[in-house]
Amino acid sequence: MSKIHTQPAVPAAGGAEDPSEERAWHACDQGGGSVTLNYSDKVSYSLSTGEIKLQFANPGSSNHALIIQLIVYGDVDAQGKAQEYLLAESGVLKPGYQVERLDGDLDSNIVLSQGVYKGVMRLLFYNPDTGEKSIVNTEIPVDISVLS
User: Fold this and answer.
1) In terms of Cα–Cα distance, which of 47, 67, 5, 72 is closest to 146?
2) CA 19, CA 25: separation in Å to the nearest integer?
């Protein structure tokens, strides 16, 4: 029987505190922000329709808008880096909005066959009031199932 580990795999940051009820987090006076994400790391892409099915929500508790770029990885180049191909890009998702479908727009020079590919959802964050690009972005690894 395996032992269940209750300790985090990475030690907590020095000086980290639990934001309990008595010490609730407050909005920053300048800059900063809060991002909350709900997503599935499973994505499907239909070769016949170009439709992409995914589950992604930018909950109302987030204070950043975002754009999703769905990237599929291709062959590895001479430097050992996988080629990246933009499969789709969402419009702006303001806090409180979600997306479950995108239209794929793969470059015609790229050929995908049925199977499962590695990729990422690259999230580009923006201030929803000013449209200013945030300096923080993130990438979520995903499995992209390519269907007929």
Assistant:
1) 47
2) 6
Residue 121: name the closest of 138, 107, 96 by CA: 138
Which residue reads 């945030």 in tokens? Answer: 134
* pLDDT tens by residue, 72-85: 998 888 999 999 99
Angle at 88 between CA 85 and CA 90, to 5 degrees: 140
What type of residue sits at position 93? L
**Pair of tokens at residue 121:** 């959802």
Q: Which residues, 6 or more positions from 94, have their beta carbon under 8 angstroms from its beta carbon?
A: 58, 65, 128
The sign of the CA dihedral 79, 119, 125, 14 is: negative
Helices then strands, each counted (H, E), the chain? 0, 8
pTM of the model: 0.79
Structure tokens, 30 = 């300048």
Q: What is the dihedral of CA 124, 128, 133, 134, to 10 degrees?
A: -70
